[in-house]
Amino acid sequence: MEDKKIVDLYFERSESAITATEEKYGRYCHYIAYSILENDEDAKEIVNDTCLKVWNTIPPNRPDCLKSYVGMISRRLSLDRYEKYHAQKRSGEAALVLDELLECIPDNDSGYDVGENSALKDALNKFVWSLPDKTQKIFVRRYWYSSSIAEIAREYGMKESNVAVLLLRTRKKLKEFLNKEGIEV
Known about the structure:
By secondary structure, the chain is mainly alpha-helical. The chain is built from nine helices and no strands.
């Protein structure tokens, strides 16, 4: 079913919208959640929570890209659950990803929240779209999907060390880019 039709079903408050969303994007949301939480049961719960959140936010929202919308919700719910589980300790791939990003993105204490601050969000989007295609895909795999360096290396036929260096250089470029945009880290 096309995304526009699914969104229309949400506006009609038809429960078949939830079924259609889960059928079309359930595996996608599960992948995002599992990459962050590393637990199948939690990932399944996040898929259900995502469907509920989509039901509660459409309407009034009318997303242009339903896949991005449900992916964003799934990722946010997964990160919230991850933070809840790991409030005192930091371990796993998601912790590594978050630690890497702390080098180049301001934390919430500095007044910037990626989810809430449109200037920061716009700058990040502008930066990501400016990257060469392969670098962009690797960057998104690491920092959106929380894929491991080993997984990315396998997928792109690269050595793990090359992926790590590429990501390090890209983070440095991001930090410089944000500073030029007036967003201090």
